[in-house]
Amino acid sequence: MTEAGTTPPAAPESRVVRRATGFALAAGFAGLAFGPRIGLSVLAGSAVTLGNLLLLRRMVGRLGATVSGRVAVATALFTVVRYALLTGVLIAIIAFWNAHPIGVVIGLGAPLLAIVLEVGRAGSRIFGAGAPDSSPAPRPPESAPGRAAPKDAGREDRSAP
Fold it and tell me: Is the dihedral of CA 124, 57, 67, 64 positive or negative?
């Protein structure tokens, strides 16, 4: 709680992790409608993505604002090792556990929806989606500078009685 008695807003990264977990579970339960093999495959793919997301969050948190050359090289090496491990885990899930490949791919993408929603939320905050338009109203064509007045601008309509 803050001094004003309100709960502080959640940090974007924790909000993404919570949403990603929710999407992963929802996708897994939806996959169960197509059979246990697909449902469990979706959950396995989601678990891989969530694990990767948590590792990324931890890695970025450790980097901080100042990065030395050694830290940058270690981070690059860790990234290569992380992707090699992710590839090995995915191969093991599909080849040895006999998971359904489409289910795994759906599971890999489900938590990414949380990131897309967070990017959309940040974009709407930055660019002011839904905010009233603050641009001035356009001028009518006859009063615009540099334009000639319409041909019949000075004539009156004499067709009416």
Answer: positive
Predicted structure pTM score: 0.65
Dist CA 119 CA 18 (whole Å): 15
Instruction: Give per-residue pLDDT as tens, 70-109.
Output: 777 888 888 899 999 999 999 999 999 999 999 999 999 9
| Residue closest to 83 by CA, chosen among 56, 46, 110 | 56
Residues 44, 92 contacting (CB under 8 angstroms): no
Residue-wise pLDDT for 24-51, tens only, equals 899 989 999 999 999 999 999 999 999 9
Do residues 29 and 43 lie in contact, with contact meaning Cβ atoms separated by under 8 Å? no
Number of neighbouring beta carbons within 10 Å of residue 15? 15
Measured CA to CA, the distance from residue 44 to residue 53 in angstroms comes to 14
N-term to C-term CA, the chain: 75
In sign, the C-alpha dihedral spanning 132, 136, 138, 140 is: positive
Residues written for the chain: 161
CA distance 38 to 113: 19
